[in-house]
Design brief:
968 residues; alpha/beta; 7-stranded mixed beta sheet; 35 helices; 13% strand
Length: 968
């Protein structure tokens, strides 16, 4: 276990000690200071701490595949790779041995002046001091030293030294380097002490080169050409080592800790951190059927689907692990196929975990317990601990993750250096088939670190952020480089998101990260684009991939290898869906449902906008009664949305025992994904063909007893269209959501399958032909539609071009040639706005949405959590003069609500935020209030109404949020 630090580990982490032989001036240079206690750390101590942590991380935390990739870039293989990583961590803060940094604490600066290291005061330096952040200063010092002392060329030094310059999250840009070069007095005080400053800086670099075993390697490294992905990984490792070594709980400050030996200090810190080890899987042996039986809780008598067996076979047979695209119908077990393939890939590639990316928080939440179930069935070494994280902005409110958090809760604190040793596992302990301990580790939490856990489930944004130029991007790349990445519902992303996805795939291919892409309805052109992006092939190179015909279909691609297409047999599962048009009118819909449900049955009505959902539900309740109609959409507070999902699964899920005799669910697009629900009848607004097919997948999805006589055959009614127009015209809301081009193409390919024509869609036989035809380049539809469809296509292409151009603003560049430094890698980026509202809007080409926490304001001005919240969480007092109790604060945080687009439109958002800020509670804006600090609060009155920026907002637990203009 990583809790234990063996003698050999300590010997590798701590050699003779940097401080041995340092001159008196060098020993006065400081790195850390605590103004509260006046504690401090000398630079040599932080250098030694950081290097020791980097060595332990390399040996015991960094996945094998990452170590292998770095090693391939160095002449001495892994031994060189480890030396380089430890050395860079050791010297990362050498820029603190400069007057621009050292002047910041008067008492410590005075000690340095007393030994001859003169420097102006911070005030005397003025604003120019900011030109020398210590990371950039260290980069320049290291480059100068490599040239002067070891004969490196100026160009070759940047690829190594940029790791120092970027260790605070962003590699420096060329103008920053030039500005500091023009101010050498920031690096060394001019005059008598300039030579001493240079000697001290050289002394630190000389000692570190000797201590960390690189002095004899620097000559061989002169001709290095480090690939940019390797520079990124080294940068990330140094950042992690620095963050750990900067934790005062783990590495206490002087003078209190001055007497502790290096070995005892490092051993205590590592035990206190207790960082879980990476997953080290062994290639599963035996048949695919045996693998599935061991890893998944399959129903009695279940047999392996051909696509599942093929996925395992391809993962085993690829020359090198790479990209595997799995196209198969809904309900074919693609998730299980992906996890099985991931295990095979991980063993072959040396991956230390899995990241499962899904389109929405709801799909992520649904996937998380499935991942935990799979992890529980993986083979584990005795006492093994595996880190697990649910990664999205509402993860802490997920019940499964909350249980994991409670079980794993521990504060990061150093173990007493003289404390008892942990029990050492007995030699030769055998591998066993038993669950490892799954932990949500304290240190591996937060926006920038959560992805570093071995097993993560999150929204696809977390993957796309790897293509967004932002601070600490290297950490996200390290997190992904050590995993197998699974991308679910790949058809669900638009052109803008795909531009980010393709760029991320190009970097994952460079990292040799195995990737599994899942889709039921993937256009052939996207299949080709995914393969080309991952392998670095030129656009259009993989025409055979785009031209592949078959369904299910598996496509395998890897750098340096020809793509392979596999056509597994069909599983035999099939259904025939009668499809017919239905006029768009609420009365028409109610009449038709009354007839179809005369003998009972459960119907799903899918609308493309929330307003249509609410309008429809109102009319249907008047006809069928309030209790017979349920509403589902994304405009509920989180706790109500979770309760709504649970209710739908209970009534319409695969094991429902309380299925109503007659019921109608009116839903938005939330019904397409995440919920494994089954209905007897489907009514859907016209949507792009892949989404229509996804919705059809909710028809007769599960085996039931006798369905009502009229509904024993699956039937889909397509509405939301003026069928009398030429061509038929989708309703305005649908056009705003999806665009006219996609809807007309969908209508054109569906037209031959409507009643009066062929009248049926056969699943899965028609899935791929319909999708490929709708998303192909050939004209579809009758000739009289041609003019309207040409106009729609032209507008679509203009929008696509705008989106792709817009994506370029913050999108990461492709890898430059090997040896070119990462200088300016995230220049002009989004700053810290990766996993934020602004960041999510950036990678999804959406308006910056606003989220509020709904609280109840009473007549006397007091605040509580909303009374209707269940589980004893409703009506809890929220004091305004103090931080609320944790239970009440968490209950309030569970009432997050995303406001609709009309309230986050660029013309309205400033006014909305200004009004919401009037409700700010100052006492909550503190780090002691993590659930509520920084959140926008929306108080509602007794009738659950409030006014905001010219709108009236009404909320009910049954219908969610309704918004209308104040003057309506």
């Amino acid at each position: 276990m990583l809790l234990d630090v063996g003698v050999d580990d300590l010997r590798r982490a701590v050699r003779r000690g940097i401080s041995v032989g340092l001159s008196r001036p060098a020993r006065t240079v400081w790195a850390k200071h605590d103004a509260g206690t006046d504690g401090w750390l000398p630079l040599w101590r932080h250098m030694a701490d950081s290097a020791a942590v980097a060595g332990l991380l390399w040996d015991r935390w960094v996945p094998e595949g990452v170590r292998r990739l770095v090693a391939q870039a160095l002449p001495g293989g892994e031994a060189d790779a480890r030396r380089l990583a430890v050395w860079l961590a050791g010297v990362h803060d050498v820029g603190k041995a400069t007057p621009a940094f050292a002047c910041q604490v008067d008492g410590l600066a005075e000690r340095m002046r007393a030994v001859g290291l003169s420097m102006p005061s911070q005030r005397e330096f003025g604003a120019e001091r900011r030109l020398a952040p210590h990371g950039l200063a260290g980069q320049l010092l290291l480059q100068e030293w490599l040239e002067r002392e070891h004969g490196w060329s100026g160009r070759s030094t940047g690829q190594v030294a940029v790791v120092l310059g970027g260790h605070h999250g962003a590699p420096p840009e060329h103008p920053q380097i030039y500005d500091l070069e023009c101010h050498p007095e920031l690096l060394r005080t001019r005059g008598e002490s300039e030579a001493l400053w240079r000697r001290v800086q050289t002394e630190f670099l000389d000692v570190c080169a000797e201590e960390f075993g690189v002095r004899e390697r620097l000559a061989d490294w002169r001709k290095l050409k480090l690939p940019q992905p390797v520079q990124v990984l080294l940068s990330a490792l140094v950042i992690v080592a620095d963050w750990i070594a900067s934790n005062r709980d783990l590495f206490p400050y002087f003078p209190d800790a001055a007497a502790v030996s290096d070995e005892a200090r490092i051993a205590a810190a590592w035990r206190g951190l207790a960082l879980p080890e990476p997953w080290r899987p062994k290639a599963p042996r035996g048949s695919a059927a045996a693998l599935f039986a061991a890893r998944f809780d399959l129903p009695a008598g279940a047999s392996l689907r051909p696509v599942q067996e093929a996925a395992v076979a391809v993962a085993r047979e690829m020359v090198v692990p790479g990209l595997l695209v799995v196209e198969a119908p809904m309900g074919e077990g693609k998730t299980e196929a992906a996890l099985a393939a991931a295990e095979v890939f991980a063993a072959r590639a040396g991956a230390g975990g899995v990241f499962f990316a899904l389109p929405t928080m709801a799909t992520g939440n649904a996937m998380f317990p499935r991942l935990l179930g799979w992890l529980d069935r993986l083979p584990a070494v005795e006492r093994q601990r595996l880190s697990v994280q649910l990664v999205h902005s509402k993860a802490a409110l997920n019940k499964d993750f909350e249980v994991l958090l409670r079980a794993s809760r521990r504060q990061i604190a150093a173990v007493d250096a003289e404390g008892d040793e942990q029990e050492v596992p007995r030699p030769g302990a055998k591998e066993r088939i038993a669950p490892a301990e799954l932990v949500a580790h304290e240190w591996l939490r937060g926006r920038k670190k959560a992805m570093l856990a071995s097993f993560t489930v999150g929204t696809v944004d977390q993957l796309l952020f790897a293509g967004l130029k932002s601070r600490h991007l290297a950490l996200r790349h390290l997190a992904l480089a050590g995993k197998v990445v699974v991308i679910d519902e790949a058809h669900a992303y638009d052109a803008y998101m795909n531009s980010y996805l393709d760029r991320v795939l190009s970097w994952l291919g460079a990292y040799r990260v195995p990737v599994v892409v899942l889709s039921a309805t993937l256009p052939a052109a996207r299949r080709r684009a995914l393969a080309e992006a991952y392998t670095g092939a030129t656009t259009g190179a993989y025409t055979e991939v785009e031209g592949a015909v078959g369904y299910p279909l598996l496509t395998a691609a890897a750098r340096g290898q020809a793509p392979v297409v596999v056509r597994p047999g069909a599983s035999g599962r099939s259904s025939t869906v009668d499809v017919e048009p239905l006029d768009d009118g609420l009365g028409v819909l109610a009449d038709r449902l009354e007839g179809e449900l005369a003998d009972g049955g459960c119907a799903l009505v899918v609308r493309n906008t929330v307003n249509r959902v609410l309008e429809t539900a109102k009319v249907l309740r008047e006809r069928f009664g309030v209790d017979a109609v349920t509403v589902a959409h994304a405009r509920f507070v989180d706790v109500d949305r979770a309760a709504k999902d649970a209710e739908l699964l209970e009534k319409f899920g695969p094991s429902s025992a309380v299925r109503p005799a007659k019921h109608i669910v009116v839903a938005s697009q939330v019904a397409e994904q995440s919920l494994d629900v089954d209905f007897d009848l489907l009514v859907t607004d016209l949507a792009p063909i892949d989404l229509v097919l996804q919705r059809m997948g909710r028809l007769h999805r599960h085996r039931r007893g006798q369905r009502p006589k009229r509904l024993r055959k699956p039937r889909c009614l397509v509405t939301g269209v003026d069928w009398t127009a030429l061509p038929p015209k989708p309703v305005r809301g649908s056009e705003l959501v999806y665009g006219r081009h996609a809807l007309l193409r969908s209508l054109a390919v569906l037209r031959p399958h409507l009643v009066g024509k062929a009248g049926v869609v056969r699943l899965p036989q028609h899935i791929s032909p319909l999708v490929q035809e709708a998303y192909g380049d050939e004209f579809v539809g009758p000739p009289e539609w041609a003019e309207a469809m040409d106009q729609a296509r032209a507008e679509h292409e203009r929008v696509q071009a705008r989106k792709e151009q817009s994506a370029d603003a913050f999108r990461l560049s492709e890898q430059a040639k090997a040896g070119r430094a990462l200088t300016g890698w995230v220049a002009g980026g989004a700053g810290d706005a990766d996993d934020t509202r602004a960041g999510r809007a950036q990678v999804r080409d959406s308006q910056e949405s606003l989220e509020v926490i709904v609280v109840r304001r009473h007549a006397d001005g007091s605040l509580t959590t909303p009374e209707w919240i269940g589980g004893g969480q409703g009506g809890l007092p929220l004091p305004q003069d103090a931080v609320p109790p944790a239970r009440a604060a968490k209950a309030a945080a569970a009432c997050g609500l995303r406001l609709p687009l009309q309230l986050s439109h660029p013309k309205a958002i400033d006014a909305v935020i200004a009004e919401l800020e009037n409700f700010c509670v100052p006492a909550w804006q503190t780090k002691e209030s993590p659930w509520l600090a920084g959140e926008l609060i929306l108080p509602v009155q007794a009738d659950c109404q409030t006014r905001l920026a010219g709108f009236v907002l009404s909320y009910t637990a049954t219908d969610g949020l309704e918004v209308r203009r104040d003057d309506e």
